Structure formats: C-alpha cells, structure tokens
Amino acid sequence: MADEIINRVAQSKLITFNLEDYYPSGERTLFDISGWLMEGLILREKEFRKYVAEYDWSQHQGQYIALCCSTDAIIPAWAYMLVSVHLAPFVEKVIIGTLENLETSLYQDIINNLDVSDYQDKPVIIKGCANKPIPDNAYTMMINKLQGVARSIMYGEACSSVPLYKKKKLS
After folding, report:
1. CB proximity list for 31: less than 8 A, separation 6 or greater
2. What value does the mean pLDDT take over residues 10-14?
3. What does R_g of the chain's alpha carbons equal in angstroms?
4. Is the pLDDT of residue 101 over 50?
5. Which one of 5, 18, 38, 149 is CB 3.0 to 4.6 Å from 127, fit for a cystine?
6. What is this structure's pTM?
7. CA–CA distance, 22 with 111 (Å, rounded to integer)
8. Exposed, middle or buried: residue 66 (CB in 10 Å: 0-12, 13-18, 19+)?
C-alpha cells in the first residue's frame, strides 16, 4: 500500500465558496431609450412620455433590466426614473448602466445579505472558473466580506490556488 495515492485536497478542511451558486436566474435585458429620442439625441418630453405610456411593459415580466442610452445624448435623470416607474411592477430589478453593472448590482445585493458565519476561522477558497457571467467586482466584494471571518482566503481551484489573505495571529 505504499504506492497508494492520497487525495489531500479531498481530505483538507478547505471550504470552497462558489459565487456561481448564487447566480440569480432570470433574463437580463439592456433597455436602450435612444429610439425614443428625436434623431437619437434630443429628448422631447411630450413625445418621450407618449412612448413610455404606449409601451407594453409586461413583456419584461421577471427580467433584470439595465437602462441605457446608446447615443451621446444627455438624458435627464427624470427620464430614467419615469421608465423605472413603469418597469417596477414587472421586473426583478432595474438599474442605469450596462449589463455588467447590472450583474455587479445583483451580486452586491446577494453578498451584502450573505451570512458568512459558517466560514468563521476556516480556510476558504473562492472558486475561480465560472460558466456564468460573474463580474470581477463580485470577487472583490466576496473577499472583503470573508476577510472579517475566514482564517485564510485563496482564489482558484483547490489543486492550483492563489493565496490572498491570512489572518494575523495575535501575540
């Protein structure tokens, strides 16, 4: 039995934290209001309000929405607010920005509400490779959350991880 292969990763007390496990399901939509502007650049209130009033908002039921304007138009805050008011009854979340901003906002909510007490004084590895669009900011938010409780934090996979943090021992 001297040649027996021992899986030290499986035997370690290392806890893997996978942000992908918290990925909220649902369609993400980039909602561009530039089509509601005169020549894509000028917001005319009367016409804009007409577009908003006539639009079928129910088609966004259950979606996560990132509001944007793809042109260089200067959009007053009230315009995005007006669109948000009409989206609110149907969508899970609405933000102003890109789809990446939306993902970051979703993860910020998730991580802020996450109970990390199970990781108290334990070695943790934040899993790296993901099949879902996990924003880089989510990893930073997660290490900031875990740093207050974990004994050590690494990033990657258990077989090839990068050490990031180790709690200092008090003398």
Report:
1. 60, 65, 66, 67, 68, 83, 87
2. 65
3. 22
4. yes
5. 18
6. 0.84
7. 9
8. buried
pLDDT of residue 7: 43
Q: Report pLDDT digits (tens) over 63-100.
A: 999 999 999 999 999 999 999 999 999 999 999 999 99
- Neighbouring residues of 131: CB distance < 8 A, sequence distance ≥ 6: 20
C-alpha distance from residue 8 to each of 117, 120, 123 (Å): 25, 22, 14
Residues 6+ apart with CB under 8 A from 100: 133, 135
Query: What pLDDT, on the 0 to 100 scale, is given for residue 71?
Result: 95
For residues 70 and 36, is the Cβ–Cβ distance under 8 A? no
The domain ranges of the chain are: 8-24+104-166, 28-91
pLDDT-wise least confident of 68-72, 119-123, 131-135: 131-135
